[in-house]
Predict the 3D structure of the following.
Amino acid sequence: MKTENMSWDEIRDYRNKPIIIPIGAIEQHGPMAPVATDSIVAEYLANKLGEKLNFPVATCINFGCVDPSFRRFTGSICIKPETFINLLRDIIESYKFQGFSKFIIVNAHETNTKLIERVLQDIEGIKAVSFEYWKVDNRINDIVESELIHVCEDEIAIMLAIKPELIKKEKVVDELPKEAELEYTLIPLPEEYKTKTGVMGKPSKATAEKGRKIIDLVINKVLEIIRKELINNEV
């Protein structure tokens, strides 16, 4: 149940259940995928969990803490860490005030992770499960064939499974940043070390079938975690 499509009194009836909050980002995903890829994936996974558990799904937080170096790619929106923290804290505290005490965070953007953990640790009186789909079950490595960094095989595979019309297959390109070859941190990073297309992986290996397998693996694993940690196997 998506809360944005519900009236306030309908949402009120779900206060005894965990509420799912999808979080993504608006950032470049190469020349072949939309800038909203992270948010699209987060919202899709959140809605799947909501359907299976009959839990409310909050409006997706579309803006995340994006690497400032991505600003050179038109359309990438870089939110400062403190902005993201304040936004997420305000959202969770609003729900807490209204009677929600359990939260499921579906995060699809890497650099949001530590900030989410910080917010959840700072708010008293709640219990939460937060996960990133690429980390929740290492069996994902049995599905993919390449290293997972950014705009890589798993992301594009999921998009091919859920929103194939948004992937421009003729523009799919593989690229690995030379930065990964460095054994030290270099600031500022010279242009020759940066990815030219924004791609940091091998999306050419992505298929819709792999995407469906990843989704099934993630959903089943997260259901197991939620039943164990939040609802004592009640659903």
Summary: The beta strands are 19-23, 102-107, 127-132. The first helix runs from residue 8 to 12.
